[in-house]
Amino acid sequence: MKVGIIMGSKSDLPVMRDAADILLSLGVEFEITVVSAHRTPERMFQYAKTASERGIGVIIAGAGGAAHLPGMVASITHLPVIGVPIKSSNSIDGWDSILSILQMPNGIPVATVALNAAKNAGILAAQILALSNCDLTQRLKTYKEDLKLKVEESAREMELSFNSK
């Protein structure tokens, strides 16, 4: 299984690249493209309807402004969709994107991460795929252990710096 990463426009790539980067580091296959809910609705329908046939198990959809892409894709596919609200140039501090993705009607869930948090969307997608992939589960455990070790190292460095005076 792989992850589908889609975004409303190419200008979202600087944010959505974080999802691709973490998936690469975890050894998770993905595809990435632009699919606009408003400018290319037929492309969006086709992408969502055929995602499973292409081996996609989870879709990460990033969108700014009105941010309809994640919810519209979720309404078309049975796959889990993770929405990434993006603070875009025409956004209201990102709140329009957050609320558009977060406030989905019952029956059409979209898992929503924080504003511009595509890295967390990538990690969540990997965790979903890891439910049926023992190797990926181990890579995620290693990733989390590395996070813990970095924090412990930071704590030791700070304690040595301040407590030795």
The best one-word shape is globular
Give the mean pLDDT.
95
The major sheet is characterized as: 5 strands, parallel
What is the CA-atom radius of gyration, in angstroms? Answer: 18 Å
Enumerate the spans where pLDDT stays under 50 for 5 or more consecutive residues: none
Alpha-beta classification: alpha/beta
Number of helices: 6
What series of H and E elements makes up the topology?
EHEHEHEHEHH
Strand order across the largest sheet: 2-1-3-4-5
Portion in strands = 15-25%
- Extended strand count: 5
Helix content bin: 40-55%
**Gap from first CA to last CA:** 54 Å
TL;DR?
With 165 residues, this protein is α/β, with parallel strands linked by helices. The protein is 50% helix and 17% strand.
Structural features, described:
It is built from six helices and five strands, in the order βαβαβαβαβαα. By secondary structure, the chain is an alpha/beta fold. Strands 2-1-3-4-5 form a five-stranded parallel sheet, with helices on both faces. α1 links the parallel β1 and β2. It is globular. The chain starts with a strand and ends with a helix.
